[in-house]
Amino acid sequence: MKRFLALSRTTHGILDIAAPAFCALLWLGKFPQVQVILLSLFAAFAAYTAIYALNDLVGVHVDREKFAGAGINQGYSVEASDLRYPLAQNLLTYRSGVLWFSTWFLLALIASYYLNPVIVAVLIAAALLEIVYCLLFKVTYFRTLISGLVKASGPVAAVLVVKSDPSIQLLLLQFAWLLFWEIGGQNIPADWNDIVEDKRVNARTIPGHFGTQKAGLIVVISLVLSVIASLFLPLISPAKPGMPYLLASLLVGYFLLLEPAVQLYRSGESRQAARLFDRASYYPLAQLVLITFFILL
Known about the structure:
The chain has 297 residues and is mainly α. It is built from 14 helices and no strands.
């Protein structure tokens, strides 16, 4: 079972569930019914489990090529394991990986349909975008934008659970917040970790193409924009959390995003990229804790 969980990067996937949970509470301004919460958590877990597995299934040949020389690197603390990329290490058969993905994807589709049939289309679109993202690995560094679309799809689905007709303008605000967080806090630092292996296979990534100094600047700009966007998120919520929430959100953004991003830009060291990736992974969870606290008040 550990190999299957490594295939789906379950530790990281569970942290990612905090983003749609936060967005659902933000839009509704209160807690939904218990049965909605439980079904939504199951749907989110199934979806993230499937999509992360899909990433390795589509990219297995490139992963084997990347790590043919020095082996699998350790990764970051939120997903560090000797079992990383189990398909590339031949720890799982491709057939078993497909079965694992298919089972969880089907469960996610069924749960999504009961929550809101429109979410089925969002989930299918996310899976197709993930495939495109993997196929563009050696084509263009602009694939990082597709990564943002995939990461934003879960929170969009969560909004559709609690709002049947959400404001497009406010959805775009939420999307911008998530897009810049994903680019600066997740995608570029993750590529930074594999920069040596990626160059070996002529991958097109932002750190590999622009170099670490320019990549670090892109990281800082992206996360500054994400934190700025977060200051407008209370406009979405009927709970009107107010100035104390804004100040708390700004502090969270500084300590989990901006401070490690600036350190990465100054040093250019891979250990700082790992530090940023880890801290940024907890950013949606910190936002979920904040909105929960203010709703309870």
